[in-house]
What we know:
Helix 6 (215-227) crosses helix 9, helix 12 (373-403) packs across helix 14 and helix 13 runs parallel beside helix 16 (471-492). The protein folds into three domains: 1-137 and 178-321, 3-Layer(aba) Sandwich (Rossmann fold); 350-362 and 369-516, Isoleucyl-tRNA Synthetase, Domain 1 (Orthogonal Bundle), CATH 1.10.730; 574-676, CATH 2.40.50.140. The protein contains 20 helices and 26 strands. The radius of gyration is 33 Å and the shape is flat.
Amino acid sequence: MKEFKRYLVTSALPYANGPVHIGHLAGVYIPSDIYVRYLRGRGADVKWVCGSDEHGVPITIKARKEGVSPQDVVDKYNKIIKDSFEELGISFDIYSRTSSATHAETASDFFRLLYDKGEFIEQETEQFYDEEAGQFLADRYITGTCPHCGNERAYGDQCESCGTTLNATDLIAPKSAISGSVPVLRKTKHWFLPLDRHESFLREWILDGHKEWKPNVYGQCKSWLDLGLQPRAVSRDLNWGIPVPVEGAEGKVLYVWFDAPIGYISATKDLTPDWEKYWKDSDTKMVHFIGKDNIVFHCIVFPAMLRAHGGYILPENVPANEFLNLEGDKISTSRNWAVWLHEYLADMPGKQDVLRYVLCANAPETKDNDFTWRDFQARNNNELVAILGNFVNRALVLTGKYFDGKVPARGPVTDFDNEILSQVAASKKALEDYIEGYRFRDALKEMMNIARLGNKYLADTEPWKVYKEDPARVATVHNIALQITASLSIAMEPFIPFSAAKLAVMLGTEPLSWELLGSSDILPEGHVLGKPELLFEKIEDSVIEAQLAKLEAAKEANAAAGFEPQLQKEPVSYDDFQKMDIRIARVVEAEKVPKTKKLLKLTIDTGIDKRVIVSGIAEHYTPEQMIGKQILVLVNLIPRELKGITSQGMILMVEDHNGALVAVTPERDVRQGTTVG
């Protein structure tokens, strides 16, 4: 395998029309932070670039909805994203933005060079145009009925109800989301990158040259290549973005998919004057960290762009992750079904590492995975507190108690001592193999195994029992336990850096070099330790319940917002309506029907008689809630048998937006038997 002199690491540019959520973190930013921190720990020459993706249609839609400019939108979210990344310890060398002057120049020059080389083809196409608004419509600005499922709120690029990818022209009864008018088709000219010209190269480069890529990445690339690549537009009709730098392109900007990956280059330019060394030297290893929705752009489209330009290196690896779900449901920004990073940091102060740990442990590396708040609590309490924190606390507190907080002398060692030390030493190679193979979940387990070894060592040697009889043996035990603790502080740093830094202070050291990991003599005899503190604290049920309540509130709000009344039923005559005898009645007795989940047996005073009604409301009302309640009853409904009980009538109920049944009641007490109509 080739040895590289330096590394260029990129992470997918977050789109600046909203904050970052845990799905983004688990899929992209925590894995790449682990990788970069590890490389830095080894003393590697590495540059890690990222930034906000600030162009494209969704930002203009957001701006229009909020009554502000697109620049206002991206300024707002760029700050939220950048600040929350920093607070979580995501350690980019630069966090840039595609609205910068450097990026505008870089992207324009990139396009112009390809244009001058004849790498684009010009095509005239028909596109929807809003005559009232006086502009061409992006796909997201067009709504209509989905031809597949009948959803009347489908977009011109996708139906969010059935998930089908669409073309705007596929929609039934399309209309403009700007003016509400019916759009017309107009001819417009655009420039296309003919990906088919690069197909044979990409096939050889990926399918033959990168069989080591993750199966999800390799498989998706193969699928695209097997279908045959097609030209892809690099411009669109829009007034927000980087203007297409050629004559006759007024009102056209660079398509965001073309514009955004060039942001990696412009960010590197802003970071270092030696940027070309990282983009054009074959001794540089370039790695793209992305989610699976960006595989095609980073493995096929962007490499084709770089090759068409000439002079640039191509990525050595693109370790894309799958998606993270939340409490069994797909994360959705539009439904606010997400754990937002900036909100988490406000709700859980000082618990950055807990989130980093849980999201790495649950990282969707090979398949979609699920985040739950109960699992978050369990991993904190049962792993971080009970395993890692417990070992560190015992090692340091007992050293303070027995040896005045100084590293004691190591005497003769046993076979067991040597076995534990050799296992800790072996963890270094295992960690390196896992991290360099982009298997961060396995790497995290290996880090925790060091803490487990430490706990096993103390549990088996029992220094608290041996001290009185053999203090010299306990000195050896604690010397070894502290060496394990020092190795642990090194192994922790890529994953939980705040805790690693805290542990270094407790050990009385500066952050330690990766190369020391697994050594048996990191801390010299007599070294003075710092004051021990708890690394982690238990998370109580009340904290978790507050987060679950927040999600439940989001679900309620979504249900309310998405409620649509049923269509009117077929008309009925007044005479038909008059046949229904609806009365005010009162519930005098109520009980659950045995061996049923939904049924209540109600005794009703209708004013004309007392009768029994069986109603499927037990999941919505208790018997106690019903007794004494005035309700509306259809009294002349033909009786029917339910679970051996004759039911004589029907209670009038309504179903709210989230499926709950609510009894229809008079606003004040009314005499039983009063007719409704």
